[in-house]
Amino acid sequence: MNSEATGLKISVSGIVQGVGFRPFVYTTATRLKLSGSVWNTSKGVEIELFGPQSDLDRFLTELTEQLPVLARIDQIESYPIPFQEVTDFSIKDSQAEEGQFLPVSPDMSICPDCLQELFDPKNRRYRYPFINCTNCGPRFSIIKNIPYDRPLTTMAEFKLCPTCQAEYDDPRNRRFHAQPVACPDCGPRVQFIVNGQIIGKFEGAISTARQFLIEGKILAIKGLGGYHLACDASNSEAVQRLRDRKKRSDRPFALMTFDLETVGKFCELNESESLVLRSPQHPIVLLQKKEECNLPEALAPTQHHLGFMLPYTPLHYLLLEPDEGFPEVLVMTSGNLSDEPIAYEDEDARERLSEIADGFLVHNRPIHMRVDDSVVRLVEQKPYFIRRSRGYAPDPILLNNEIPEILACGAELKNTFCLSRDHYAFLSHHIGDLENYETLSSFESGIQHYQKLFRIKPQSIVADLHPEYLSTKYAIDRACKEEIPLMQVQHHHAHLASCLADNHWPAGQNVIGLIFDGTGYGTDGKIWGGEVLVGSYSSIQRRFHLAETPLPGGDSAIRNPSKIALAQLASADLPWTDDLPPVQAFTSQELEILKTQLANRINCPMTTSMGRLFDAVASLIGIRQVSTYEGQAAIELENACDPAEENAYSFRLKSDTIEIAELFDHILLNLRMGISSNTIAARFHNGLAKMCLEVCQVIHEETGLQTVALSGGVWQNITLLNKTTALLRYNGFSVLQHHQVPANDGGIALGQLLVAAAAKQSN
Ligand code: ZN
Ligand code: ZN
Ligand code: FE
């Protein structure tokens, strides 16, 4: 060591454990001939380095610029320390500190190095379905507690063989401290089971499973975060059988192919879509169907998009390996009966899926936490979340500043919850619709797990304003038991705050919020959903809302666009004439009953929902009279849009109301002129975008505000999103869209959290 040698202490936090960070530090330090050591703490990673100043500087640059793929640095601090005479660089044992915590890496798809080994006949892990390394494989789904060490994962029961142990111990090996490391001698194994009997093991299990798929049978396959149900996607009978058995009427099925080229045969694929499909997260990407796509309609009835993902585990690769006569595309839908959560425990899966699946391709690596596949679309070349789960959760959302420890319980449908600590918001993986016992208990156990994993003890709880949501009831119950404060946040305020947090918007600055969704409990007890708000994290003012219309039968009307159309016509004083599709959907007797119900306001809550307006228009122009899943009519209305149409319907603004009578007048007029439903659908979308601009211009006049946040489930409509964004920007507004969390209720817990934090701050 020369005379200018000095010392440096570096503390790093972020995703720096279990992702090859210490070996990366080791190789960088030894390459630069620096001495010292690196060790994990419960807070992150600490490094002590000794050598010439210029090399220490170089080390710091390389540390941030050449990170391992799964690592993420949130904070880095360094300060000089006195030089010490140390001969080499070493990796020291972990040092735990009570109460400290670390983010945990999400589960990641198999990396290129492991994939290469998987198909290399000379490699000792050739065709081994559980190959992984520090850059890839299961993480969150197998971790029971921190620190992230093998005994605290579901890999604890597999004792490393001497060869794997040597790799695990060698800092220069790419499997150094890869906790799930395994090989055919010591790791998990696959089995194929039919009627409770094991009929295939190892390669035999996979080849029998493939034979089943060729024969059009349905398989239950244990994956990374849960079970999938699979069948040959090109076999219409198999697809229909799966639909019937799963009791899933029209909801689209996700698809998987061996490689990107095969996806390109069926769907349009641009560069950014290809990049996201192949990203380490491997989400399901919704892609535009090609005209010549010959896959069965039953995969995604009436849809213009198909959800594709690429294999993300070595087992998927072996299962889908191309071969003469083997299906090019598999259905890979979540392993559940409709509305239930995805199965992930073996016994439970066998019980619940045995009526659906003809065979089970399983393995003996337990899944500790179930994680569904994530679903995205691409907006402005970036992922736009429909569902944020595997590959992304439990990565925290970074906040502008530190906030207290709070639990936000989310909404009812597409539930996620959120827990905060320091400047992190841990938005959970997708839980599902909190409508049954199974989903509720996975919500409760999920919260317990996150609290333990991230060492969070909530000081307060926040929930939706809706008194009947199971998440609200849970929150009230828990706040009572633990004697901690409870706050209830209005649904659309939470949506707005979620979009603001998603964009790191500063506290205390108001924006215009165009918050459009299906349902949210209003401060007046009515069902809101077409809301133009002015506000920020701390408060909102409801500046405009869609005209109130009755919702005959309450929430059940959601399945019945024709009922909604008739109710909205009636409230616009327009007659139910026989030429209208929603009128034709009922018998004259049913029409009489509905008329009486509306006239006497029997079980007719009032709503300003934008989702219901989409339902009404879809029904009126003959697109859909009965929905089998939430949002179906709206999706089909979007699909119907003629992209070349430029005309727009108008909405009249009257004090705080966005009137719809004129809209219906115009639609009926066009309908009777014989104008196509594609043109009408486009004029409706164009009209909404124009209305968005108009309300923003009015508010700009009043307040000077020029930033607009777009949140709520309606903004999953990409046609409307793009039209509105373009129009607003063209007129000088800046637009905040969602990037990190869904615009739908899957992102709402983040907003609740921030509203609660803002309320605490001002107290
Ligand atoms: Zn790997
Ligand atoms: Zn081994
Ligand atoms: Fe909502």
What does this protein structure show overall?
The structure is a single chain. This protein has 4 domains: 5-91, Alpha-Beta Plaits (2-Layer Sandwich), CATH 3.30.70; 190-363, DHBP synthase (Alpha-Beta Complex); 396-503 and 745-762, Nucleotidyltransferase, domain 5 (2-Layer Sandwich); 516-538 and 541-736, Nucleotidyltransferase, domain 5 (2-Layer Sandwich). It contains 22 helices and 31 strands. The strands form 5 sheets. An 11-stranded mixed sheet has the order 7-6-14-8-9-13-10-12-11-15-16, with helices on both faces. It has a 7-stranded mixed sheet with strand order 28-29-25-24-23-30-31, sandwiched between helices. The mean pLDDT is 94. It binds zinc ion (2 copies) and fe (iii) ion. Residues 160-161, 163-164, 182-183, 185-186 line the site of one zinc ion (ZN).
Bound molecules: zinc ion, fe (iii) ion
Could you state the CATH homologous superfamily of the largest domain? ATPase, nucleotide binding domain
**Which word captures the global form?**
globular
Radius of gyration: 28 Å
Query: Total number of helical segments?
Result: 22
Helix content class: 25-40%
CATH topology of the largest domain: Nucleotidyltransferase, domain 5
Helix and strand composition category: alpha/beta
Strand order of the largest sheet: 7-6-14-8-9-13-10-12-11-15-16
- Beta content: 15-25%
What is the CA-CA span between the terminal residues?
Answer: 57 Å
What low-confidence regions span 5 or more consecutive residues with pLDDT below 50? none
CATH architecture of the largest domain: 2-Layer Sandwich
Topology, number of strands: 31
Name the average pLDDT. 94
The number of distinct structural domains comes to 4
| Name of the top-level CATH class of the largest domain | Alpha Beta
